[in-house]
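Okay, can you check this protein?
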Amino acid sequence: MFLINERDVEWRRLDKGDAKGVLGKYLITDKEGAKKFHMRVFMVMPGGNTSFDQHIYEHEVYVMKGTGKLITIKENIKNEVTIKEGDAILVESNEIHQFFNNGVEPLIFLCVKGDPSIY
C-alpha cells in the first residue's frame, strides 16, 4: 500500500511541447509501485494550455476546479467541448487532445492514465 496527501506534493512546471502555464503533481507512478495506472493532478493557469498530445494509453480526467475547453481529434474528426468542475472525461487510446484554460481561475484536474507497459 502507498498513501500520500496531494498537499504534500510540490507543483512542478511542465514545459512539454507547446504547453504553457501548466503545473503538475505526480501523485502515484511506477516509482511508488504502481504497475498499471498513474495518478497526476494538473493545473492550467488562465490563458494556458497543455501540449497537443497523443499516446497509446487512455486516461480518465476529473475536473476539480475551473472551466476550460478540450479539443480532441479521432479518426480525423475534431471535437471541441467546454469543460467545468465536476466533469469526468475519457480520453481514448491514440486520441489527439489538448486542454485549454479560457476561464479566469486556474483549471485543476485529476488525471489517471494507464502505464504504457500494459498496452
